[in-house]
Amino acid sequence: MRTLISESEVREGVQRLASEITATYGDGPLTIVGVLTGSVVLLADMIRLLTMPLRVGVVQASSYRGATSRGPLVINSDLMPDIAQHDVVIVDDIFDTGNTLAELIELMQKLGPTSVRTAVLLRKTGQQEVAIKPDFVAFEIPNEFVVGYGLDYRDEYRNLPYVGALDPEDLRS
Ligand code: 5GP
Ligand code: MG
Prior knowledge:
Elements: E1 2-5, H1 7-25, E2 30-36, H2 40-47, E3 54-64, E4 70-76, E5 87-95, H3 99-109, E6 115-124, E7 136-141, E8 145-147, E9 163-166
Parallel strand pairs: 2-3, 2-5, 5-6, 6-7
Antiparallel strand pairs: 1-9, 3-4, 8-9
Helix pairs in contact: 1-2
């Protein structure tokens, strides 16, 4: 495992995200919707840096069928708060192809929010397959499989306090 982004760098990145969100929404109010499961660590750290009136909810989206190979995207919005006439920021761990956030934005737009923006810890350079871009990004990373700070490989490593890269020979798909 190679460290890609250290614990202190992650902390600075999360502070940048919170500052940008604060600059955009001022005194709020704001609704944050975290994408399960990868966003939980970022969600917990980031919301504590935000001081406007805040509601927090979650939505589940998963596209991984094998450990690193992609299946169809499945969204479960049963736990999502009412977002009609609210400013919403969707929070996810990583923007890769962008399909997950693009579909979530489309789903949420139908529910009548005032606005929908997206915040991610990581964006993989050159992988984007959709027209949308995340509004708030802490780090650009190369196209490697990363784990830690919420990101898993076979449901492990989510608890690492830093972001590490796994080498292709360590991955079974
Ligand atoms: P997208 O729909 O943007 O292609 O993929 C977003 C989702 O794929 C993320 O929420 C995350 O669950 C997963 N993902 C994409 N790249 C990686 C990676 O390098 N490591 C891990 N653990 N998950 C990833
Ligand atoms: Mg995810």
